[in-house]
Amino acid sequence: MNSTTATAQIDDDPRKYFWFAVYLLIMAVAALPLFGLRIPSILPYTPMLVIHEFAAFAFVGHAFFSNIWSLRIRSTQPREFGIWARRHMRVLCLSVTGPIAVITPLAGLMVVEQWGGLAGAPWAWDSYLAFWIICAISVVPDVIRYARNRNADDPMHGIINGGIRALAATVLTFYIMIAMIAKVSLIAG
Questions:
Q1: Residue numbers of the domain that contains 69
Q2: 3-state DSSP: the chain helix, strand, coil percent, rounded to 5?
């Protein structure tokens, strides 16, 4: 597909503004904890911590390895395998990435209630902000894009854009890990 056709396809999208509104609504609601919204814990500390850590591990592992796998297949194999890999990534995105991108921060917010919420734990505030940015640049756009599935027949669609966003998300993920392990804050503290 040439760039003129791609541009016309984007411009001809009658639901473009609806999906922009969905994106903005998700990001606005997700930003509320940064401004003081507190989520009370529904379980004791240790079970919530286990849920948070396993969800975070699954999120990072799935996002990192499945994306590398998909990018390799989509860029090196015949077109029909690329379409299959993109279809498989759609299933993973909607069944793993989306739900775990909700479970991980919610469980984390419940865990930090012991320290007085994000306001009492600057390292957690930094981590939540970094995760919010990851969701803004990568996770939410990808979930919406895969849910809409407008380019299912083009395995190379979004490869470069996705790769750039994934690199930025990877850097932020390393910052989250450092902030959470060392309990240090470069932004809030």
A1: 41-182
A2: 80, 0, 20
What is the C-alpha separation between 72 and 66, in angstroms, rounded? 10
| Structure tokens given for 55 | 């969800």
Residue 160 buriedness (CB in 10 A; 0-12 / 13-18 / 19+): exposed
Alpha-carbon span 93 to 106, nearest angstrom: 19
Query: Is there a domain that residue 65 lies in?
Result: yes
Residue 111 lies in a domain: yes
| pTM for this predicted structure | 0.88
Nearest-angstrom CA–CA distance, 43 and 73: 41
Quote the number of domains for the chain.
1
**28 within some domain:** no
Predicted confidence pLDDT, tens digits, the chain (189 residues): 455 555 445 557 788 899 999 999 999 999 999 999 999 999 999 999 999 999 999 988 887 888 788 888 888 999 999 999 989 889 988 999 999 999 999 999 999 999 999 999 999 999 999 999 999 999 999 999 889 988 889 999 888 888 889 889 989 999 999 999 999 999 987
Could you identify the residue written with the tokens 């990018």?
A: 71
Question: Do residues 118 and 124 lie in contact, with contact meaning Cβ atoms separated by under 8 Å?
Answer: yes
